[in-house]
Amino acid sequence: MEHLLRAVGGGTLEWILSDVIVFEVSKCPDEERRERLKTLYQKARHRVPLSEAVSRRARSLRTQGLRDLDALHLAAAEEGGAEVLITTDDRFIRTARMLQPPSLVRVENPAVYELEVFQ
Question: How far apart are CA 62 and CA 58, in angstroms?
Fold first, then answer.
């Protein structure tokens, strides 16, 4: 993740922030970690609000097996025009790969994506 965050800071990659991420970070019980994550918000150039369109798409994604927050994350990424959604949640990755029709946003592990980007 550190390499990817440096690439965001250097302008090689763009980070799209969503209200879903902001909500999840607000629930982090570790105050120090929560504050560090909040400072990363400044690197985002675009923020996707939680809208009716995002909620509607998330409900549709849930019918294909995605958990509530995973569905919201993916719906927000789609709404924001992201190419890739980075997560360490293997279940989220597996379920997203089985979506029909496939999402336009690829859900990927950071280590796998880093190898692809920095080769």
Answer: 6
